[in-house]
Design a protein that fits this description.
Elements: H1 2-40, H2 45-57, H3 61-67, H4 70-82, H5 94-106, H6 108-125, H7 146-152, E1 158-168, E2 172-181, E3 187-196, E4 201-206, H8 209-252, H9 262-288, H10 297-323, H11 326-353
Antiparallel strand pairs: 1-2, 2-3, 3-4
Helix pairs in contact: 2-3, 4-6, 8-9, 9-10, 10-11
């Protein structure tokens, strides 16, 4: 009996030793495999692109910046975007064009820094934010419409589709990446330059970004012009109506001492309720019924925003004169300024996209 117990214990010890050896071997294989993976794949451009995509999906801005040199990409893209920006504008003298180009070079540091912050915020939040607070890129503080510049860059409407191929040398690589313009559904192959850093690869430049802009621009412009023609009668009709209303408004608000009488306030309030606000609402309703051509989505959105802000402005103005509220009148003034800013942006969009072939109309 004692001999049997001794043999059983010996057998158990042999099995345990066998399992320990197998476990050690598996661990060694795992360590070797990880080391080989680290050497041969984790330090490749393909791995950097994979990690970059996952970082954007998981909203990991720090990881995204590890595999993409945003400052470098943005700097090169800014040069491509602003180069020859005014070349097609026949209304500008050559000397003025040169002056504008020099101006864009001068403000490049502020614009590219702000754009890097915009992209980082997008990765973190999953949505595109507007510069706010005391940001120099808010509105037209730098002398440019930054919102419109971002729109021209195609940044917000260009989506990743797939990696076509990656070719590389010792310390540089080029990835062919297929992207899609969300406005028109057009596909394009971007060539991304990657450089090898100390312990990873980074995307540093879009080699054919200018080609992309030149390719996608005319396609969008074609749809934009078609949509503009389709809505032109509506714009013209309501421009006449709103011009007449503006003339009536000026007559109704004419005073000798700058203060409206109670009778003027009452008539003006009735006119705003019965004519001005309904006209703005009706115009937007008719515009919304027109199908949007590919490439005209931004114009439609701008018109919708302008209408909303104008209506809100009149509503606060109405409350201000009815309740003699300075704060409401000031709010109405601020909203009106925002609406005018969007009107200027629409003018720029139509002028630049159509290369001065579309007649100037303020929607």
């Amino acid at each position: 009996m004692a001999n049997f117990d001794w043999q059983a214990q010996l057998e158990k010890r042999r099995r345990r030793t066998k399992y320990e050896r197998i476990g050690t071997l598996i661990l060694l294989v795992f360590i070797l495999g990880f080391s080989l993976w680290r050497i041969f794949y984790a330090n490749t451009p393909e791995y950097a692109l994979e990690k970059l995509g996952k970082a954007i999906e998981s909203q990991d801005a720090a990881e995204m910046q590890r595999y993409c040199d945003i400052s470098s990409v943005t700097s090169h893209a800014y040069d491509d975007l602003t180069r020859d920006m005014f070349a097609q504008d026949a209304s500008l003298p050559d000397q003025t064009k040169v002056m504008f180009e020099q101006f864009y070079i001068k403000i490049k540091p502020q614009v590219t820094e702000g754009t890097c912050q915009l992209i980082t915020a997008y990765v973190q939040n999953g949505s595109w934010l507007q510069p706010g607070g005391d940001n120099l890129l808010k509105g037209r503080q730098l002398g440019i419409d930054y919102e419109y510049l971002v729109e021209r860059s195609q940044l917000r409407n260009t989506k990743f589709v797939k990696i076509e191929s990656v070719s590389h040398t010792k310390d540089t690589a080029m990835a062919k990446v297929q992207v899609r313009d969300e406005y028109t559904g057009t596909l394009f192959i971007l060539n991304l330059l990657l450089n090898q850093k100390e312990d990873n690869w980074q995307v540093t430049k879009i080699l054919n970004y200018r080609d992309f802009l030149d390719f996608i621009g005319p396609i969008q412009t074609s749809g934009l012009m078609a949509y503009t023609r389709a809505t032109q009668n509506i714009i013209d009709k309501y421009n006449d109506i709103l011009d007449t209303q503006q003339t009536n408004f000026k007559k109704m608000t004419a005073t000798e001492d700058g203060r409206l009488t109670s009778t003027q306030r009452s008539k003006l309030a009735g006119y705003i309720k019965s004519d001005i606000i309904p006209a703005l609402e009706k115009r937007q309703q008719e515009l919304d019924e027109i199908p949007v051509n590919d490439g005209a989505q931004y114009l439609k959105e701008m018109r919708s925003q302008e209408a909303r802000l104008s209506i809100e402005s009149w509503q606060h103005f109405l409350t201000g004169i009815e309740n003699d509220s300075t704060s409401e009148l000031n709010l109405a003034k601020a909203l009106h300024a925002e609406a005018l800013d969007i009107q200027h942006r629409i003018e720029d969009l139509l002028k630049n996209s159509a290369v001065s072939r579309i007649s100037k109309t303020i929607p």
